[in-house]
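Per your request, structure below.
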């Protein structure tokens, strides 16, 4: 790799012909509305109802609602119907699509084509047939030992099962050659039934929360007759785009997902002009392409915009039931990778691909709804008298306060550690922001006094709990102000009728964080039910005073977790410590809570989402992944320094030395060259020293890893020794980059990575 290669990439980024993208039109040339293509690659319940006899379809619906298991006849009928539907649309293969604990999805393709052998008097007769049975639809058998299992499966114990998740629709995706593949959303379990994936625990947590909330609603509002409660999720997905010709010249981006060396350009995000700015035309084409593919797969992308940092963008969907929303988020990430490639771009989902500028998150907007279509976190017109809303709200506050370490653990990774607390990311201290008005509602109930009037005198009040903003311009209409403001420094904020879990990392699956949140809220709801039943006593129903007594208890109890201020300040660190909130700065520290007796008891016995074996497995996997990520970064930066950075420094030093010598030979002052040469030599020596220290640290880590199999020890050792050595090496490398003449620097710089999209 040389400067010439880098120069060619720079030229290609501005001279390459853009990929053509045309939105589909009707045969007569009129545009196709998005609603007309939405879900065309999804085998919907409507499609199933058309294809199946009514009794068979009714049987499937009963199974889907959890009323009975799926019998063979029904499974075979569904399999036949979906095969015909898929093959009519070009599908030649099917796959069980699942979410192992690798941070991505997995799939193994099987052909519909089968060979049927008939024995005739003349010999064997082989007939090719396209077949898909109910048993093939229901389950498949990937090699469980080849996925992370945390010690639950030995290498020689290979069997595992993927099982169709009937709550998530089947769909087809086109292949590169005009054929398609039928995707069957699935869970992944071991031979003994333990969850090896991210989705199984999410589905368990959804059911547990539904049971707890329906019991609570039956207690406080028996007339409502709610039979089922479900969680909704909207995942705002942030990401960076980089020119692909630049990306391929950066080994660190290709291998680790982030830049391990590099200086910020003089202008990056300081002027705050990129956020919500005009989307670059090249990016707009890619985003439109993404939206088209997502619409066909029933993924309801709603918004798109520039994010804070140059080269950073965001897309966000309409809210859906959480398990489907997770599937759709992972699909969106997968499609974005594919679409970016078509447009000569690369999508970066790492939480901190560039040092010193805004990182990327996956803001998970979470709420709870009933089968009657009611959002239980909707404050309504008068939240102070809406006891159902207040109790559900307090259940979430109690959950976050009681199980904050678990929520911190759920968003922990080596990549998210770089982001939490930096630029726009929320701090690693878990707290809840409610806003002044909602806080006043709780305070007034606790203190048994009237609620303060939040309407500003010159504004007109409105009947949605907020106020109208009069803009004092006749041509502009008055606008309603939401009940609460937004706080970007809060990791968990109430935003009108939902909570925004802002701390989730951009590249991780939302499954585990949402499963932990569901579990914590289930536990909190159980506590509140117990207290409500105690105050009711022998009475046939709860009085308002009974409800208020429990409400006041939990308002007082959850005060420490409520914080309305700036989460970035040092004062908040001090205040959080006074309140007794856990301050967990690193992932390995967070991982330890997964085996803490209090949290093990809640997750296994109280809400029954995990088994102890599953928790130990996940603890091992999280720690092992953390250590491996850092070790891979170390090996990558070692290679880059040795093969790219130091050679560039040596070459430039040689040029300077020859220039200084030539000037001296003709009696010309060479002091500028000598001064630069001396400074360059010092920096190169510092870099070599840092590099040698990194090599030593990695060798010591490898020896320690061989001597001790404890993955938790490995993670902490990688954090305390390897990561500082990587950073020290980077500091010297970045100083060298600032000294070496641009024409000798072999890899694309931040200016080219960030500002050529």
């Amino acid at each position: 790799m040389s400067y010439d290669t880098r120069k060619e990439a720079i030229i290609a980024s501005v001279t390459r012909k853009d990929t053509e993208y045309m939105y589909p039109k009707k045969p007569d040339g009129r545009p196709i509305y998005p609603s007309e293509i939405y879900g065309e690659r999804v085998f919907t319940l409507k499609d199933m109802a058309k294809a199946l006899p009514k009794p068979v379809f009714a049987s499937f619906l009963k199974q889907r609602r959890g009323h009975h298991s799926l019998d063979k006849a029904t499974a075979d009928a569904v399999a036949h119907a979906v095969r015909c539907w898929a093959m009519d649309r070009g599908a030649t293969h099917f796959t069980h699509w699942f979410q192992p604990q690798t941070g991505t999805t997995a799939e193994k393709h099987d052909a519909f084509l089968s060979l049927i052998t008939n024995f005739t008097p003349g010999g064997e007769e082989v007939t090719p047939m396209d077949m898909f049975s109910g048993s093939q639809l229901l389950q498949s058998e990937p090699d469980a030992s080849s996925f992370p299992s945390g010690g639950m499966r030995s290498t020689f114990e290979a069997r595992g099962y993927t099982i169709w998740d009937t709550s998530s629709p089947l769909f087809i995706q086109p292949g590169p050659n005009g054929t398609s593949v039928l995707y069957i959303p699935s869970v992944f379990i071991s031979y003994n039934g333990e969850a090896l994936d991210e989705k199984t625990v999410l589905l368990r947590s959804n059911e547990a929360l539904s049971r707890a909330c329906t019991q609570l609603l039956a207690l406080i509002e028996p007339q409502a007759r709610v039979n089922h409660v479900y969680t909704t999720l909207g995942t705002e997905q942030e990401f960076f785009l980089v020119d692909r010709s630049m990306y391929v010249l950066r080994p660190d981006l290709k291998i680790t997902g982030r830049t391990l060396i590099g200086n910020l350009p003089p202008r990056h995000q300081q002027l705050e002009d990129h956020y919500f700015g005009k989307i670059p035309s090249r990016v707009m084409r890619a985003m439109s392409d993404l939206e088209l593919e997502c619409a066909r797969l029933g993924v309801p992308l709603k918004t798109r915009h520039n994010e804070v940092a140059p080269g950073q963008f965001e897309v966000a969907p309409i809210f859906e039931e959480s398990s489907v929303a997770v599937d759709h988020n992972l699909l969106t990430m997968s499609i974005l990778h594919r679409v970016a490639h078509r447009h000569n771009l690369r999508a970066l989902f790492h939480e901190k691909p560039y040092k010193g500028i805004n990182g990327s998150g996956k803001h998970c907007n979470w709420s709870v709804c009933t089968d009657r279509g009611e959002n239980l976190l909707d404050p309504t017109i008068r939240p102070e008298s809406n006891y159902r809303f207040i109790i559900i709200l307090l259940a979430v506050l109690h959950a976050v306060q009681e199980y904050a370490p678990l929520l911190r653990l759920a968003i922990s990774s080596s990549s998210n550690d770089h982001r939490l607390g930096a630029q726009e990311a929320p701090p690693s201290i878990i707290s809840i922001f409610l806003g002044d008005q909602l806080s006043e509602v709780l305070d007034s109930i606790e203190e048994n006094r009237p609620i303060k009037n939040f309407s500003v005198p010159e504004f007109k009040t409105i009947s949605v709990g907020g106020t109208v903003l009069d803009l004092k311009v006749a041509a502009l209409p008055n606008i309603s102000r939401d009940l609460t403001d937004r706080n970007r420094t809060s990791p968990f904020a109430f935003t009108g009728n939902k909570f925004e879990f802002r701390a989730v990392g951009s590249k991780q699956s939302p499954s585990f964080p949402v499963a932990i949140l569901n579990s914590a809220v289930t536990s909190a709801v159980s506590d509140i039910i117990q207290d409500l039943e105690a105050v009711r006593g022998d009475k046939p129903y709860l009085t308002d005073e009974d409800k208020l007594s429990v409400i006041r208890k939990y308002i007082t109890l959850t005060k420490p977790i409520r914080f309305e201020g700036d989460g970035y300040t040092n004062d908040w660190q001090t205040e959080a410590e006074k309140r007794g909130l856990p301050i967990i700065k690193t992932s390995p520290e967070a991982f330890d809570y997964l085996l803490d007796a209090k949290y093990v008891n809640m997750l296994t016995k109280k809400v029954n989402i995990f088994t102890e074996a599953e928790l130990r497995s996940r603890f091992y996997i999280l720690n092992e992944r953390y250590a491996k990520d850092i070790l891979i970064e170390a090996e990558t930066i070692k290679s880059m320094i040795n093969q790219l950075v130091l050679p560039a420094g040596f070459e430039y030093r040689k040029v300077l030395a020859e220039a200084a010598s030539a000037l001296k030979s003709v009696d010309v002052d060479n002091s500028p060259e000598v001064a630069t040469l001396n400074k360059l030599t010092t920096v190169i020596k510092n870099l070599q020293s840092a590099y040698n220290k990194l090599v030593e640290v990695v060798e010591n880590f490898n020896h320690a890893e061989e001597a001790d199999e404890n993955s938790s020890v490995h993670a902490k050792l990688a954090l305390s020794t390897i990561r500082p050595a990587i950073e020290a090496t980077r500091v010297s490398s970045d100083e060298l980059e600032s000294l070496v003449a641009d024409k000798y620097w072999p890899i694309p710089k931040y200016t080219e990575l960030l500002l050529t999209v």
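The longest helix spans residues 612-665.

Regards,
D.
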